[in-house]
Write a structure and sequence with these properties.
NAD(P)-bd_dom, seven-stranded parallel β-sheet, binds NADP nicotinamide-adenine-dinucleotide phosphate, UDP-galactose 4-epimerase, domain 1, two-stranded parallel sheet, Rossmann fold, NAD(P)H-binding protein, alpha/beta, single chain, 16% strand, NmrA-type_oxidoreductase, 45% helix, NAD(P)-bd_dom_sf
């Protein structure tokens, strides 16, 4: 089994490559990226590093050649990423890949109002129709988002404001998602399976603010506002339409319970428990304390 990890200079994919190399030989790993120079350290360790861009389908046959299993990391650009994912799936099938491991999202459900979900649903459809074996990793809400993006400005203001109204989610370290992806890529029996990859506990943003206050020594309160009020505040702050829609719809989806799956997948597949969000806060203590 030779595995290809695509979008390999991204945070999730690169961490997956590091974990995969603890489990398999460098000869069995191909890293595909738009930026091979960023992965020179892997090349020095004997890993094959190749250029590949989903927006240049002609670059993909050579990129995937010889691989039998592929990690397809979902991309960022809403709408357009379905075309990018399709290009990758078609090229992988043509190159002889037999099994795709797709990093999906915990909220993926046709009833979920989050604006990031439809692209995942369409990607699931094209993967299901591809004739390839597929494993879905429904990754939970990254703990990195509150810790490194939401909390620093909230601490600086003294209040975290959103529209989630004490709804809860099982925030997971992206690195734990990577460890799970590596375990799936380097072992057998995962074809046709779907795994919900979550953190170890359900937390609201009020809980997260309280934990951050304890870790950083900086007081930070929590206020929930209506969707319309949050939308207006974000508009006032100059947040672009698509990002605003993503943030507001995330709160609506969390309130509807789409962040609530809580599983032991990390421990079951990696042998160690999922790490709590406070570990990440400790790691970023200077960012939080000096916000
Ligand atoms: N669960 C959550 O809470 C959550 C939160 C945020 C994002 N996500 C999803 O998780 C994914 C991975 O997260 P991450 O933190 O690892 O993101 P990241 O560090 O931004 O990595 C994304 C990677 O996408 C690749 N990419 C961009 N355009 C490409 C193209 N045209 N063709 C091929 N690859 C392309 C790039 O890899 P190369 O430069 O190596 O080509 C980039 O490094 C995101 O893309 C997003 O879909 C999930």
């Amino acid at each position: 089994m030779r595995i290809a990890i695509a979008s390999a200079s991204g945070a999730l994919a690169k961490a997956t490559a590091v974990y995969a190399l603890e489990r398999t030989s460098a000869d069995d790993v191909i890293l595909v990226t738009r930026n091979p120079g960023a992965l020179a350290e892997f090349a020095r360790r004997g890993v094959t590093v190749r250029y590949g861009d989903y927006d240049e389908p002609e670059s993909l046959p050579a990129a995937f050649e010889g691989a039998t299993r592929l990690l397809l990391v979902s991309l960022h650009e809403l709408g357009h990423r379905v075309t990018q994912h399709r290009n990758a799936v078609e090229a992988a099938a043509a190159a002889g890949v037999r099994h795709i491991v797709y990093t999906s999202y915990i909220m993926v459900d046709p009833a979920c109002p989050s604006t990031v979900v439809p692209d995942h649903l369409r990607t699931h459809e094209l993967l299901d129709a591809s004739g390839l074996d597929v494993t879905y990793l429904r990754n939970g809400l990254y703990a990195e988002t509150p810790v490194t993006q939401i909390l620093p400005p909230a601490i600086a203001r003294g209040t975290l404001v959103d529209n989630t109204d004490h709804a809860k989610g099982a925030f997971v370290h992206r690195d734990d998602c990577a460890a799970v992806a590596a375990a799936v890529l380097t072992s057998s029996g995962h074809e046709g399976r779907t795994y919900d990859v979550t953190g170890p506990e359900l937390l609201s943003f009020a809980d997260i603010a309280a934990l951050a206050a304890r870790v950083s020594g900086r007081p930070v309160g929590y206020v929930s506002v209506d969707d319309e009020v949050l939308d207006a505040q974000l508009r006032e702050a100059g947040v672009p339409d698509d990002v605003r829609g993503m943030i507001v719809s995330f709160g609506v989806a969390l309130r509807a319970g789409f962040g609530e799956p809580l599983t032991d997948t990390v421990r079951e597949l990696t042998g160690r428990p999922a790490r709590p969000i406070t570990d990440l806060m400790e790691r970023h203590r200077p960012l939080l304390a000096n916000a």
